[in-house]
Amino acid sequence: MQKEVQEINPLLEEWKTPHQTPPFREIKHEHFVPAIDAALNEAKEQVDVIINSTDKPSFQNTIVALEDSGEKLERVTNVLFNLNSAETDDTIQAIAREVSPKLSEFSNYISLNDQLFARVKEVYGQKEDLNLTPQDLQLLEKKYLGFVRSGANLEPEAKKRYAEITTELSQLSLKFGENILAETNAYQLLITDEKDLAGIPEAEREAAAQVAKSKGKTGWLFTLQGPSFTGFMKYADNRKLREEMYRAYTSRGFQKNDKNNEEIIRKTVNLKLEKAKLLGFKNHAEYVLAERMAENPQRVNDFLSQLYTASRPAAEKEFAEVQNFAEINGLKDPLKQWDWSFYSEKLKNANYGFDEQQVKPYFQLEKVREGVFGLATRLYGLTFRENKSIPVYHPDATAYEVYDQNSTFLSVLYLDFFPREGKNGGAWMNDLRSESKINGKDIRPIITVVCNFTKPTETKPSLLTFNEVTTFLHEFGHALHGMLANTVYPSQSGTNVYRDFVELPSQVMENWATQKEWLDLFAFHYQTGEKIPAELVQKLIDAENFQAGYASQRQLSFGMNDMAWHSITEPMDGDIVEFEQKAIAPTELFKPVTGSCLSSAFTHIFAGGYAAGYYGYKWAEVLDADAFSQFRKNGIFDKATADSFRKNILEKGGTEHPMKLFVAFRGQEPSIEPLLERSGLKN
Ligand SMILES: [Zn+2]
Question: Active-site residue 98, yes or no?
Answer without folding.
Answer: no
